[in-house]
Amino acid sequence: MTAGLSRIESPTTVLGPGDDAAVISAPDGRVVASTDLLLEHRHFRRDWSTANDIGHKAAARNFADIAAMGAQPTSLLVGLAAPAETELSWVDGLVAGFAEECAEVGAQVVGGDISASAEILLSVTALGDLAGRAPVTLSGARAGQVVAVTGLLGWAAAGFAVLSRGFRSPVQVVNAHRRPQPPYAEGIRAAEAGATSMTDISDGLIADLGHIAAGSGVRIDLRADALAAPAKLRDVASALNVDPMSWVLGGGDDYGLVATFPTFAATPAGWTVIGMVSEGEGVRVDGLRYADGGHEHFR
């Protein structure tokens, strides 16, 4: 796998792929790390997504976690288990997807491992650098602060619904599921603007804000009018007889970012204020609990 990766370089890579282990510099003295598993038929389907799409998405899922801490992604470690009959061209496409997503953030695949398996399994670990900043965690939200979001909401869930019904369009919606585009740079911008808590939206807005509410010991109140589904999602939802707000509030896999800021004025441009932090617990939409809280791994 290393041949297709050697052309991508990162300034923090001292020794890249090809040796027993990589050597990564840590200018900050701390390393932000996140790991993820992607299992065929559960996290991706080869009849829905190309190998290149899957490589992009596998990297994006992990880089979004790094960005959500207010850090810059630097490196990726990739483990691949696959059936012996897997076509080499498919693996080449996967590697290209990883390399291209790394290039988006100036990171590099620095190593990994391969093994035989009955089905394809990817294990991906991302590393990042805080550049002297404090990490933005789940535990810093306080009553009186504002909640804001950046990136897409509900598009990947809509794409999943479309693909599940056997359709391949609208392409814009389907591609949001196949190849998410996290707003990586916004994580650092939010940290520099004084974000008090932040997370990426992987399991759904309600579920992921629930992690902030629990970690911070607060209640989060969202406004439905600030979360109105765009026309494209409303059109798709109408065709499938689905409430589009179920995608906006409960759909994950877009990997946008949601954060809390001290004041409205502190919220960076490009972020949309969608609610407030208050005393209490849990997440409410217009004062009510939302029935579908998003993805749960063992549900």
Automatic annotation (TrEMBL):
Pathway note: Cofactor biosynthesis; thiamine diphosphate biosynthesis; thiamine diphosphate from thiamine phosphate: step 1/1
Binding site for Mg(2+) 4: 20, 34, 65
Entry keyword Kinase: yes
PurM-like N-terminal domain span: 18-128
Binding residues for Mg(2+) 2: 36, 65
Protein's gene: thiL
Further comment: Reaction mechanism of ThiL seems to utilize a direct, inline transfer of the gamma-phosphate of ATP to TMP rather than a phosphorylated enzyme intermediate.
Organism expressing this protein natively: Jatrophihabitans telluris
Family that this chain belongs to: Belongs to the thiamine-monophosphate kinase family.
CDD domains given in the database record: ThiL
UniProt keyword annotations, A-Z: ATP-binding, Kinase, Magnesium, Metal-binding, Nucleotide-binding, Thiamine biosynthesis, Transferase
Residues at which Mg(2+) 3 binds: 20, 65, 200
EC number(s) given by UniProt: 2.7.4.16
Residues binding Mg(2+) 5, per UniProt: 203
Protein known as: Thiamine-monophosphate kinase
Function: Catalyzes the ATP-dependent phosphorylation of thiamine-monophosphate (TMP) to form thiamine-pyrophosphate (TPP), the active form of vitamin B1.
Binding site for substrate: 43, 253
Reaction(s) the record says it catalyses: thiamine phosphate + ATP = thiamine diphosphate + ADP
Domain PurM-like C-terminal: 142-231
Residues that, per the record, bind Mg(2+) 1: 35-36, 113
Residues binding ATP: 112-113, 202
Top-rank lineage group of the source organism: Bacteria
Sample GO molecular function, one term: thiamine-phosphate kinase activity
